[in-house]
Amino acid sequence: MRVRLDLRYTDYDSRGHVNNAVFLTYFEIARHRAWRVLTGLTADFPFIVLEAAVRYHSQARFGDRLAVDIAVTEVRTKAWVWSYRVIETRDERLVAEGHTVQVMFDYDAQRTIPIPDVIRTNLTTTVKGA
Amino acid sequence: MRVRLDLRYTDYDSRGHVNNAVFLTYFEIARHRAWRVLTGLTADFPFIVLEAAVRYHSQARFGDRLAVDIAVTEVRTKAWVWSYRVIETRDERLVAEGHTVQVMFDYDAQRTIPIPDVIRTNLTTTVKGA
Amino acid sequence: MRVRLDLRYTDYDSRGHVNNAVFLTYFEIARHRAWRVLTGLTADFPFIVLEAAVRYHSQARFGDRLAVDIAVTEVRTKAWVWSYRVIETRDERLVAEGHTVQVMFDYDAQRTIPIPDVIRTNLTTTVKGA
Amino acid sequence: MRVRLDLRYTDYDSRGHVNNAVFLTYFEIARHRAWRVLTGLTADFPFIVLEAAVRYHSQARFGDRLAVDIAVTEVRTKAWVWSYRVIETRDERLVAEGHTVQVMFDYDAQRTIPIPDVIRTNLTTTVKGA
Q1: CATH number assigned to the domain comprising residue B45
Q2: Per-residue pLDDT tens for D9-41?
Q3: DSSP assignments along chain B, one per residue
């Protein structure tokens, strides 16, 4: 699934390229979009991020047009992995890639929970379909 | 009251100076510090911002050391005004100034309320003492 | 001119509504878009913000769909005014409004300059057309 | 080396805890401080981040007091590794940990370069001293 990004002027640092920390925000934009598409749920997100990693391949400069290709690449009992590739869309240049591990979380009870079946099915289908 | 700022690399834009929007965050840092000092309260803040204005006087560049001078400059029934001056502290250069108007807000009831007497006293004393 | 906003999860604060400082970033997104449309220029922006002001009318909550209506409302020798209305687009509710004053700036010479004629014409046409 | 953080209200998301992306900014604050202490250099930073990773251990909530413990944990020809632990300082609770790999970068020539000897010595001493 490809999610187009609206870059903001504040994403750039004094070198004129997108600051390294902003890529985790780009990942977040992509997974929130993917979550809504996969589940149809519109409430605040019932999961919590356990791990995040990014590898930077090329600088994103002023005027670049970026998108994130996001895919579910692993599903466990309570957690799953989303993988991301940030692409400059005019030349398909790879800007950055990475992944996050997140776990289903019951915010009221403040504890992790198994992935509900209906969501598991959607996440798993996505893995197989990738 | 002077509040020293810890500038972040992400505060700078591609021109190498602090982005204009960040000054409202600097104002926020200052008023949250001032609120805690004035009231001793540590919960989330029981007011809401109605207006904000900034005038930019000089560019804040990489390496500048900034602080905010904050003062209560008006107290009304439900609302009050905080005024701010952002200063480069090595040469007392004025970088920006502005104000915010905020109103006491009951977030549970979702409505504005009068400033409680104990807080009014503290805010008013500050105006007189300025 | 209406500019649709892609809200980010990081725009929300712990109260679940868009932080007050973020509105200056929304204004910036709108004026950068408007500048490109008006002038066709794609380089970094040759102006600097002198003043900014916001009035907050209603809270922008999780799930709201926001856009900015932006218009040039005054043109001076070196400076001009952009006015903004942030709208929830499903019910046309007014969320915030404000303006910025910016001046043409020669970043190499580090001084303000008059608005070039070709740009002045475009800005002025926009005022009349509003 | 321990670097105290000034948390900002905008660091919190609608769940009332520090947003996951902000931790890369906390790492950045720490490494910029560490770089200045190690090298005495005050110009913009002559390196570029290649990789970043974070593991989240506990939620950072409103009112928490955070610091980053930063250490150089590996030095290569052109690149080195900084490791980070974000700590709540009142109870020494581990909030997050991670690392970044960065490489010396000549921004004028737009290419990577070997770590200069004087900087290598400082980085290596830090590793041994850890």
Answers
A1: 3.10.129.10
A2: 999 988 889 999 999 999 999 999 999 998 888
A3: -EEE----GGGB-TTSBB-TTHHHHHHHHHHHHHHHHHH---SS--EEEEEEEEEE-S--BTT--EEEEEEEEEE-SSEEEEEEEEEETTTTEEEEEEEEEEEEEETTTTEE-PPPHHHHHHHHHHHHH-
Q: What would the pLDDT profile of A81-99 be if each residue is shown by its tens digit?
A: 999 999 999 999 999 999 9
Contact A20 D21 (CB under 8 A): no
pLDDT band with cut points at 50, 70 and 90 for residue A77? very high
Q: Which two tokens stand for residue D41?
A: 């250099």
> End-to-end alpha-carbon separation of chain A, Å?
9
Contacts of D9 in chain C (CB under 8 A): 13-14, 19
Supply the range of the domain harboring residue B124: 2-129
Contact between chains at D10 and B32 (C-beta distance less than 8 A):
no
Nearest to B70 by CA among B119, B11, B127, B120: B127
Domain count for chain D, please give it.
Answer: 1
Q: What is the pLDDT of residue A130?
A: 44
Does the structure show a pLDDT above 50 at C130?
no
**B29/D44 touch (CB, cutoff 8 Å), yes or no:** no
Tell me how close the Cα of B32 comes to any Cα of chain C, in angstroms: 14
* Residue D40 forms contact with B (CB below 8 Å): no
